[in-house]
Amino acid sequence: MDEQRNRLIGALRDIAREDAAASLQPGAALLAEFRAGYRARRLSGVARAIGLAIAATLVVLIGTSLWLAARRLANISDPRLTSTPLGEVTTAFLQLPYGAVPYTTAQIVRLDVPRASMIPFGLITADAAPYIETQTVVAEVLVGEDGLARAVRFVRPAQAPAP
Amino acid sequence: MKQTLLLAAWAMALATGAAAQETRSRGPAAIDFVAVEPPFGPVIRDSPYSGEATTTVTQVLADGTRIERVTVTRVYRDGAGRVRREQTVIGLGGLVPREEELSFVLIVDPVAAVSYTLDPKARTARRAGVPAIAGNRGGSPPPRSAPGARANIMDPLAPPPPPPPPPPGIGEGVNARGRGQSPNPGNVANAPQPLGTRQIEGLEAVGTRRVEVIPVGRIGNDRPIEITDERWESPALSILVQSRHSDPRTGIVEYRLASVSRAEPSHDLFVVPSDYTIIEARNEERR
What we know:
The complex is a heterodimer of chains A (163) and B (287).
Chain A: H1 2-74, E1 82-83, E2 89-90, E3 94-95, E4 106-114, E5 136-144, E6 149-156
Antiparallel strand pairs in A: 1-2, 2-6, 3-6, 4-5, 5-6
Chain B: H1 2-15, E1 32-36, E2 42-45, E3 49-60, E4 66-77, E5 83-89, E6 102-109, E7 114-119, E8 124-129, E9 152-156, E10 188-189, E11 193-200, E12 203-214, E13 225-234, E14 239-247, E15 251-261, E16 277-280, H2 281-286
Parallel strand pairs in B: 8-16
Antiparallel strand pairs in B: 2-9, 3-4, 3-15, 4-5, 5-6, 6-7, 7-8, 10-12, 11-12, 12-13, 13-14, 14-15
């Protein structure tokens, strides 16, 4: 009787063990499946972030280029570069040694000066001197009633009309 | 930074001789006239005079070296407001490689609405248009002279250009008429101080003194730098008669009008001599 009882208990235990093993396998599979899916989703998120970063970089680059181009166009009206009625372009007035002396009346004297005259004002590097030795540039000098030159600006003549 | 780059680019264009840039090659480059614009300021009629203005620039260097330069300008103005100036320009600094004398004769005829720049060496006269005075168009605008003045001041020929910007540490106090505030906010500019009236060369002149101080440390100076400017102007002729500008950095600039005559100058002074070739200045610039 005892032996029969023990066999029954053993059989029941085996069944219970098998059931437990059977019930565990789908969970692990599901868990593995879930983990794989999560990993895939996580990888696609990183890819998307990288894509977005590249897109954002492109937008910034294009935007900056457009902004710089617009700024360059806006620079045409820079107050330091003015256009005269003749279509000339001039620098701002650059001060000469006695530019600080007040004047009551003044006049503009237009001169051809050696292009090397621009060197002291930093408009041309001194290295260029040998190559521009014989060249001239138009300069407008502001002269007071006392004959003292106050300031100078350099002029780029208007472009010649196309033939 | 942007402006610096822009200026540098512009300068490079000039330096490399942009396509449209006129460049003359004729041996070592020398200074040469192109044109002279009429003086800024009003046309003054019914107040003829002539005189000789002497400008003396004196500078004493730290080692005791004294530099003195003098330039003389002869000025004539007739009753119609025509002006003749025989002038030599100094103070060109680095603009000319060696000290070259720059002299010219300018005739401004607001009645004929024309100006001539005479080059006595080349025997040429460059002609340019100037705005005609209102009187030439049949009108007679009210004089714009100061109270007590007798000169008949007409519409200005042209507005004065903006004063040059002062570079760092140099040029504080630049202003077109010597009466405004310092363009450099770091400096202390006192209000012009009236000096009263004085007889100079037979003319009644009204004086003003302006003092501007560069505070300690503004340009690395260990004590205040005082710049004084004294000017004497004739209300009757609306001209500067005498001035003295003292700046420890650049020296003393003195201007004095002498040999003043209020007689009507000879008409010939305002006419281009017959042996001169007249060149249209604007056409020349456009070539």
